Amino acid sequence: MDSVIRGEAYVVGDAIDTDQIIPAEHLVYSLKRPDERRLYGRYAMSGVPASGQGLPQGHVPFTALDSFRSRFTFVVAGTNFGCGSSREHAPFALAEAGARAVIAESYARIFFRNTVDGGFLIPFECIERLISRIQTGDMLELDTVQARLTNEDRGDSFTLRPLGDVARILQAGDVFAYARQAGLIPMAP
Amino acid sequence: MTITEKILASHAGRQRVTPGENIWVDVDILMTHDVCGPPTVDIFKREFGEDARVWDANRVVVMPDHYIFTANHHAHRNVQLLRTFAQEQSLPHFYDVGTPRYKGVCHVALAEEGFNRPGSLLIGTDSHTCTSGAFGMFSTGVGNTDAALIMGTGKIWLRVPDTMRFIFDGALPPYLMAKDLILAVIGDIGCDGATYRAMEFVGEAVYSLSMQERMTLTNMAIEAGGKNGVIAPDEVTVRYVRERTDAPFEEVYSDAGARYYSEHRYDVRTMEPVVAKPHRPDNKAKVSEVAGTRLDRAYVGSCTGGKLEDFEAAARILKGREVVIDTYIVPATTEIGRALHHTMHDDESLHGIFESAGCLMGQASCGACLGGPKDTFGRNMGHEVVISTTNRNFPGRMGSKQASVYLASPLTVAASALSGVITDPRTVLC
């Protein structure tokens, strides 16, 4: 886990469920084969209705048409981000598009677990409602050690909730690396 | 301790656990399907080796159910990957597509096949795995990575949840179903009202329900963000389980002095049929408040609303009548699909009632509940307004993000199919 991550923000609203993060029709692609897995980057966040894509103005696709990578490093969301299904394809798709962290007011449980255990993204919780303080395209800097987010374009700085116990899994890389470090499973084959 | 805490403690080899602590537990059953099974197997092999064996072949259940009746070649490839893995690992509990063993929707099939046993701990790669909690057990959904770790070790870490207690007093009126009760709860506490917590359902109305109806309650715990839904076992539970398995199990009950995060009491005698309006499962309204809303189609199916009793309820209303909008009937499992032919209502089979009413009959699978490939039976493709017995209505859930989905009980869906507008089942039930 890098101590500082810098990049552009992509802002969405409340209760963005996993069908909006990656619509179910795309779940047929392999997450392993390079020619198929990049499609998850292409369709990440494509289920969000156009008016809610990239707030406040909307109509900003997360991944540009015909592209496989997003220019956005951070997803900034409201409450209950990642609710709905257990599909790990959701944090996978965001990571495959190039996102590094999510800053949300709250998360659905399984999505949060998946981001951490799979080591896909860093899921920070914000205390303020940052979707009204950050706009899509704003340049952000995240200090993962201090749990602090700076909006360089607006000169704002926000304290985030500490990651707590899950930081150890994120530091290790994923739940397998963590379990091996802790001696819970044998070293990798 | 609550029933949830007791089951977690026993599977952690502990006397006690406390809400909030993270523990490693032993898993009794791991279930996966065609969407999350192949990537789970990829991670399992990456982490444990190409020739690694699952921790216990008898405890791995593989039930393809999502993308079955489609021409999509990636979907077929994924089922083939499961087939290969089941052969490599000699998995006895693989329910292969195109064979007499094929079942359909995993959460209903787990019950039918006797994998749901009181006191046990079941993890599945699907959010609606919480359905199994109707059998007085702990069950929850996880992603591919956690499932792969279980495949290799039989273990998972869990944070012990606080428990919210939902008490339903009174005898259930004939126009209400479990779906109305759970939609009311979700509407009251919100889509994140139970996040990280267990939802325990008790009370006279709950224990008057069949196992199928109890499964509707626990099935939608996830729609309130719940980690698990649970109903302590009684003689109805034990009878259902004993008819399907000889495996041993231990009934577990919450202590009289168990600590609850909160208590929520309902008198079902004063409740009314409800819907969840677009585009959130917590967007509750009484059916009477939205009656007359124009509809394009009706859908009866899924792990939530595609069980035999859901079709019996719909048939009670559709018998001798005709639907005026496209009405899709999709049994959850092949067992239910067969039962539609030999389950009679007033001397006519349910299947016959639906055909005479002009319904469109589908095959056992998850169907259009979650959209899926473009050629999925009943999938929304445009601006349809749909009333459905399924579980989610977020934008795009049933295939098109321009469509609008109302969630309701099978009684309300059937009543609405007859008129083409949202209709209170009390107006057509005789």
Q: What this model shows, in words?
A:
The complex is a heterodimer of chains A (189) and B (430). With 189 residues, chain A is of the alpha/beta class. Chain A has a single domain, classed as Aconitase, domain 4, CATH 3.20.19.10. Chain A is built from six helices and seven strands, in the order E-H-H-E-H-E-H-E-E-E-E-H-H. In chain A, strands 4-3-2-1-5-6-7 form a seven-stranded mixed beta sheet, with helices on one face. In chain A, strand 2, helix 3 and strand 3 form a beta-alpha-beta unit. Chain B has 430 residues and is of the alpha/beta class. Chain B folds into two domains: 252 residues, Aconitase, domain 3, CATH 3.30.499; 153 residues, Aconitase, domain 3, CATH 3.30.499.10. Chain B has 15 helices and 19 strands. In chain B, a hairpin with a 2-residue loop joins strand 15 and strand 16. In chain B, 62% of the residues are buried. Chains A and B meet through helix 4 and helix 6 of A and helix 2, helix 3 and helix 5 of B.
Q: What does the secondary structure layout of this molecule look like, with pairings?
A:
The complex is a heterodimer of chains A (189) and B (430).
Chain A (H helix, E strand, L loop, with lengths): L3 E8 L6 H4 L12 H10 L28 E6 L11 H9 L3 E4 L4 H9 L4 E4 L13 E5 L4 E4 L4 E4 L6 H7 L2 H7 L8
Parallel strand pairs in A: 1-2, 2-3, 3-4
Antiparallel strand pairs in A: 1-5, 5-6, 6-7
Helix pairs in contact in A: 2-3, 5-6
Chain B lengths: L2 H9 L10 E5 L2 E4 L4 H12 L11 E3 L10 H16 L17 H7 L8 E4 L13 E4 L2 H10 L1 E5 L3 E7 L8 H12 L8 E5 L1 H4 L3 H9 L8 E3 L4 H8 L19 E6 L6 E3 L7 E3 H4 L6 E5 H4 L2 H11 L7 E5 L3 H9 L1 E2 L2 E2 H8 L2 E2 L23 E4 L15 E4 L2 H10 L11
Parallel strand pairs in B: 2-3, 2-4, 4-5, 7-8, 7-10, 8-9, 13-14, 13-18, 14-17, 18-19
Antiparallel strand pairs in B: 1-6, 11-12, 15-16
